[in-house]
Design brief:
Blueprint: E1 2-8, H1 14-21, E2 27-31, H2 36-41, H3 65-74, H4 96-111, H5 119-125, H6 128-145, E3 149-152, H7 157-167, E4 171-177, H8 180-188, H9 194-211, E5 220-224, H10 225-230, H11 232-242, H12 282-285, H13 288-305
Parallel strand pairs: 1-3, 1-4, 2-3, 4-5
Length: about 300
Amino acid sequence: MNVIYITSDNRSGSTMLYMMLGGHSNITALGEIYHLRAYALQDRSDYDPVHELICLCGKRLSDCEYWTKIEMALGKSFDLLKLKPYYVVRDKQRAALDQYFRKFIWWALQRLPGLYENRITYRILGDKVIATDSFDLYEAVSKVSDTPYVLDSSKNPFRLRELIYKDADRIKVIILYRDYKGVIHSKTKRGVPLKKAAMEWKWHVRQMDLFSKSLNENQVLRIRYEDLCTNTEKEMHRICGFLNLTFEPAVLQRNRQGLHQIGGSPSKFIGGERPIELDKSYKEGLTAKEISFAYKLVRTEADALGYDNGE
């Protein structure tokens, strides 16, 4: 069993990509396993998307035969799994001081991800249980699905770092970038301030690049959302080659039938009805002044990835 881990900023097209890869006969796409416990407990305080906490099949995990089989193969309840660092778990029951401490740690790591590589800091903040529980889950999924690859699109770079510490040899990482303008526009539509959206994009790029450095070149594939949408077949051939899998035409569209993914954009419920096409709505949604302001914040990372200021 090997793990494919998709890491990206939010609103970068990871839902589209994991639905495409989910159509391959040798890949079991789980979606954002990061949120499995919230789905199992129907806990909206920990994860509150705009759609219900249900499997892609339309059922709650407790009523889904597929997830029930995985839980049996795992040998313990999903709610006992630890899949998130404690400083990102939302828990309104904790004392205010503890909540502030969590927020401070997250604030610091977002800006200085290199702290997580420091032995002393990692000894305090790292959590090997996350990786152990994750790989136990992957093994159970592989046993039930009988596929060589399990796809986790949790995106979070710090979760990826824990998995690498645990068993780097069994991980293939797909880093998905999207033009900062598209990401910022998508986030601002959902109430995120423009400056915050820009800085989140910048920090995610830094984190993804930093934590993937310890892997061999044949374990990391960097792709751009724009290339995936405009040169779909070429990019999917490249991804299949990276995974040492035979290309299958099913990966050229969003797949839904027979899949049991969690998390991700509500667009997953549309499935194959929604074509693979480039979203450039930011051109009408962002002003030239807003793009120029954002570009000044992310210029170093944007230039490295070939994303200009839109002029």
